[in-house]
Amino acid sequence: MNLSAIVAAVLAWPYLWPLVFVLVIVLVLPLVAGYIVLVERKVMADMQVRLGPMRVGPHGLLQPIADAVKLLLKEDIIPESADKAIFWGAPLVSVTAAMLALAAIPIGPFFQIADLNIGLLYVLGISALGIFGIVFGGWASNSHYSLLGALRSAAQLLSYETSAGLAIVSALLLAGTLSMRGIVQVQDDEGVWLIFAAPIGFFIYLVASIAETNRAPFDMPEAESELVAGYMTEYSGFRWALYFLAEYTNMIVVSAIATTLFLGGWLRPFAGTSLFNFLDFFPPLSLLGVAVYCLYRAPKQPVAVQKMFMVGVSGLCAVVALILAAPLLAPSGSFLAGAKDGLHGGFWFLLKVSTYIYVFMWLRFTFPRYRFDQLMRLGWQFLVPLSIANVMGVAGALVLHRQFGWGRVPSFGLSVIFTLAVAAYLLTVGENPPHTREGKEEEIAGNA
Amino acid sequence: MPPSDIRGSNVETTVLGADEIILNMGPQHPSTHGVLRVKLFLDGEKVVKSECVIGYLHRGVEKIAEHRSYQQFAPYVDRMDYVAAVSNGLGYCEAVEKLMGVEAPPRARVIRTILTEMQRIASHLFWLGTHALDIGALTPLFYCLREREEILKIFEKYCGARLTTHAFRIGGLQYEAYDELEKDVERFCQGFDKRVDEYEALLTQNRIWVGRTKGIGIISAADAIAMGVTGPVLRASGVEWDLRKAAPYAAYDQYKFKIPTEKTGDTYDRYLVRMEEMRQSRLICLQAIENIPAGPILGKVGKVLKPPPGEVYHAIEAPKGELGYYIVSDGTTQPYRVRIRPPSLINLEALDQMIRGHLVADVVAIIGTLDIVLGEVDR
């Protein structure tokens, strides 16, 4: 058997590309999560008139690596009264569940580990398992702060999974398939992203996904000013970092779900309109812009190493820009031109996911935190009824559109108006009742 | 502690007959503003009762006073409420002046007023930032610190120190105002109104903020008076009581300003009162810099202070409430006894009554709204 035959056999092996993708995800994800933390700190700094991390590498670009090294070298403390085995394993449950969920998500039409026909169901089910890691960790820590944090987390996930699920149902009604790839395909065929058909569904999913990932303003489980660090209070070192990794992976997962369901997945804006084909030049040009900017900033770095690093970052961006530009420049019909969808799809997908994550950060640094009972009230008394109304509205619009032959705009416009009316009704009726302390007044005053 | 049963052993039974959870908040906790320890008796997340444990920062300031001369003790009071050191110093200097029967010259009194009002703004800014942080709004803290920094820079230019300033001396001032003091204060005041609008834009109408603060930690005017609560906490309950008007000191009788009050006495009202107080302090500063009288800055006091035997109580309206100094002199160079009435300690005593029946999340909001500084609580 000669070499080319071996290569051909390997290439034909159906598990080859999934295996490569698994490796990429497992190796790259911690790095990506670390850099999301860096971006978050930079965004926070920008909103708070500060600079953020600036010491490690130019503009703090090496900070995540320094953090990872620090966390790896830290002592792994297990409290004496903790349930050791569960304490040890709980973060692994969280992080594994979060990573497994990425398996069914298509990052571009090519980069997907497995295209399950029940892909969406799988992602939802697996990512919900992560809560076990939090509950186990909170329980095993044997600390009141951890326990309260874990209980809050479980209750919160249950409440908001309901409305998130119903928001997803509205998108599923429109797409008619559970396959992640199929959902994007439908949006490509119809020529419209589902966010325009079910904007309120998207809004509900946005709120619910923030709550599900325990991010501010719904970060009750780890509310630092109340519960110190919630379920992570007793954790330190790398075990703590694993929880962090799980949290950020979960953010990526919910953003990916939202992108796939509502924002057209890997599709370019106006994918079907040839008039907007110039948008194909946006991916390489934007990266080229970053490269040029880095090169321009390089001489202004104070230390020689930082100058070199900046040039390196610039070069990296330029290379990626070149890769993205190659399919556009190559003659049509060649292999490279055929790779355009795969490459550009990945770019657009990641851009949408990043935007979604940016919204997470933006909200986090703008709003105060909800109180737990207010969070529950918002979930059950506003979001759940609203998402039910949304499902009804979308279903009605589909009936109008398919059975009665109404146009898309009037039928879906009617459904949006219906859902908004329900929202307005819920807001007026479900106004937070004035907070009253429980118990009799004299008991509270302590004079009884 | 006002309610009598707090230290008692009457463990109340909870709804399901389960035992209460005892949650030890502090002394190391991110939002107890220092080393306050609050023992919370919880039914689920509801606070059944609470118990404050203080004294982790006790340094014996009052005892130290008995072994220092009058001037020597002045820097120590800066370390009580270290967020508003200038106000502490003003109270002490005026108390000793009262004891000795001397008065600071007009120029010194006006400059004292300006710096003290700047300090009030700085203290309220710090309160706003940390209070918002406790409730989960991360960003206002940095905006507040940005403005506070400008005030601290003015202090630094004036006396060389930023935090524990020791800005005043018994009998007047040690340092003449530097040349651009008026300009610096004016520049700050001109821009500051818009900055307060900015904070209000972030918080005042914010649904989450209103939901977290309205109706939380209500204390009625009668209860507040009974417990000796003073300052913005008292004014938010509807009592128009401000020592700057009730018993004017420094140069406050020369300026026009309003005493902001609210009605219900909840956390939201205390927030509104302090926001308005910052605006009023700004107005006082603007009035004061218009006309700073010329003249000496130090009254006729000797190098060695020997007040006649006797006692005096002098109180000022510190940013946190009534800050009183009770000094007994036996005719020597050292005070026989100094008793300090710190507003934080007295206000903190209302905590238990305010948090009963609320949730754990409200406890941090209420501790924040009391604006305590543990250096002052423990002394």
Task: Give an account of the 3D structure.
The complex is a heterodimer of chains A (448) and B (379). Chain A folds into three domains: 37-70, no CATH class; 74-267 and 362-429, no CATH class; 276-361, no CATH class. Chain A has 448 residues and is mostly helical. Chain A has helices at residues 3-12, 16-47, 63-73, 84-101, 119-140, 144-175, 180-190, 194-197, 199-212, 224-227, 237-262, 282-297, 304-329, 335-338, 340-366, 372-402, 408-429, 441-445. Chain A has 18 helices and no strands. The longest helix of chain A is centred in the N-terminal third of the chain and has 32 residues, at 16-47. In chain A, helix 6 (144-175) packs parallel to helix 16 (372-402). Chain B has 379 residues and is of the alpha+beta class. Chain B has a single domain (61-378), classed as Orthogonal Bundle (Cytochrome-c3 Hydrogenase, chain B). Chain B contains 15 helices and eight strands. Chain B has helices at 61-65, 70-78, 85-100, 106-135, 140-159, 181-203, 207-213, 221-227, 232-236, 243-246, 267-290, 343-348, 351-355, 360-370, 374-378; strands spanning 21-25, 37-43, 46-53, 168-169, 172-173, 310-318, 321-329, 335-341. In chain B, the strands form three sheets. Chain B has a three-stranded antiparallel beta sheet with strand order 1-2-3. The two termini of chain B are 18 Å apart. The A-B interface holds A 44, 47-50, 144-145, 148, 216-217, 219-220, 223-228, 364-374, 432, 434-439, 443-447 and B 2-6, 21, 23, 29-31, 45-46, 49, 132-139, 141-143, 146, 202-203, 206, 208-209, 211-212, 214-216, 223, 352-353, 356-364.
Secondary structure layout plus pairing:
The complex is a heterodimer of chains A (448) and B (379).
Chain A: H1 3-12, H2 16-47, H3 63-73, H4 84-101, H5 119-140, H6 144-175, H7 180-190, H8 194-197, H9 199-212, H10 224-227, H11 237-262, H12 282-297, H13 304-329, H14 335-338, H15 340-366, H16 372-402, H17 408-429, H18 441-445
Chain B: E1 21-25, E2 37-43, E3 46-53, H1 61-65, H2 70-78, H3 85-100, H4 106-135, H5 140-159, E4 168-169, E5 172-173, H6 181-203, H7 207-213, H8 221-227, H9 232-236, H10 243-246, H11 267-290, E6 310-318, E7 321-329, E8 335-341, H12 343-348, H13 351-355, H14 360-370, H15 374-378
Antiparallel strand pairs in B: 1-2, 2-3, 4-5, 6-7, 7-8
Helix pairs in contact in B: 2-3, 3-4, 4-5, 4-11, 4-14, 5-6, 6-11
